[in-house]
Amino acid sequence: MTDPDFNLLVALDILLAEESVAGAARRAGLSASAMSRTLTRLREVTGDPLLVRAGRKMVLTPHAQDLKARTQNVVSEMRSVLNNSAAPLHLPTLEQTFYSAYQRGICRNFWPALICACAAQAPGVKLNFVAKSEKGPQFLRDGNVDLEIGVLKNMGPEIRLQALFRDRFVGVLAPTHPLAQGGQITPERYAACEHVIVSRHGMVRGPVG
DNA sequence: GCACGCTCCGAGTGCTGTGA
DNA sequence: TCACAGCACTCGGAGCGTGC
């Protein structure tokens, strides 16, 4: 039995992510025709069309939808195995550009310290800060971003998370406010008050209720 | 509003060159 | 010799402008 061509996995990963032969070709540094032939080979190997025309666009078949997450994980694991160099990381000579996604209002506090630390310990490193328009780990999975700073959760097992700090809310109220009367402010008393919710994501309920 | 034609874009394919 | 990639081309769909 001959092993399949594992290079096809990388192409499959890009095709499933881009949902476009032309887009996948650009990302892989190939011509569209070369990527089209690669897709043909993938169709032969998997026995599934994988990407089918829907008007002017291409859409994933149900089988391709099933393969998408598995392929991402396998390719990510392959890369981590192959990139696991035995040579220790040497920051003073490291020449690399890192892209960092940020959520407005959260990580600007970290920029000065981060830039100073890079300049001192890794002068060859360049930092590009990219405003992030949507939540989710897709930017990291696609490799468009190396680092994200913000309120992160449900990122998946392949994304490494590290807590930088814990925040807390501080309430300010007038001496005449009902909460200021009657002793200790409990969560129940706080929740019983009327609230105004401001949500960037259209949520009509918050942690309070 | 509708039909028609033009243009653009993307996928697929035949042919050919290249390297192992 | 074979596999792969690029060039050139065709085909099909969408968008847009124009005339009725």
Automatic annotation (TrEMBL):
One MF term in the entry's GO annotations: DNA binding
Domain HTH lysR-type: 4-61
Signal peptide: none
Assigned keywords, A-Z: DNA-binding, Transcription, Transcription regulation
SUPFAM superfamilies cross-referenced by the UniProt entry: Periplasmic binding protein-like II, Winged helix' DNA-binding domain
UniProt keyword DNA-binding, yes or no: yes
Domain of life of the source: Bacteria
Keyword Lyase in record: no
PROSITE patterns, per database record: HTH_LYSR (PS50931)
Family indicated by similarity: Belongs to the LysR transcriptional regulatory family.
Protein name: Nodulation protein D 2
